[in-house]
Design brief:
- This protein is mainly β.
- A five-stranded mixed beta sheet has the order 2-1-3-4-5, with no helix packed on it.
- The protein is globular.
- It has one helix and five strands; from the N terminus they run E-E-E-H-E-E.
- The chain starts with 26 loop residues before the first strand and ends in a 19-residue tail after the last strand.
Length: 110
């Protein structure tokens, strides 16, 4: 993902409309396949700032990745697009950008 443009929109319960947020107002968004959460940044250690943290799940439905088809039965989950968007740019905030043969990335959240 290039250092680009990301928008965040809250979901209204009714009439199911999106409205644009111009600031996260101290919130942290964890975005991933099947599970995205929002928390107050102040609930985390002091150096933890508001932003949108995202995981590389672009090949979540790729059978070759999940079942190791065509690569010697070895799974290779991509981990190259994990990071944080804040202040208009993306930064890597996780180690190991190479593929994982153990698991696709997930959030472990309370």
């Amino acid at each position: 993902m290039p250092d680009a443009y990301v928008d965040a929109f809250p979901v209204a319960q009714y009439p199911f409309a999106w409205s644009e947020l111009h600031a996260l107002d101290g919130r942290v968004l964890f975005v991933g396949h099947g599970c995205s959460r929002s928390y107050e940044a102040r609930q985390y250690p002091p150096d933890f700032k508001d932003g949108i943290y995202f995981l590389d799940d672009g090949e979540f439905y790729d059978a070759a990745v999940i079942f190791g088809i065509g690569n010697g039965n070895q799974r290779r989950y991509p981990c190259s697009d994990n990071g944080k968007w804040s202040d208009g740019h993306v930064q890597r905030c996780f180690p190991r950008p190479d593929p994982s043969d153990h698991s696709a990335p997930v959030w472990l959240l309370p």
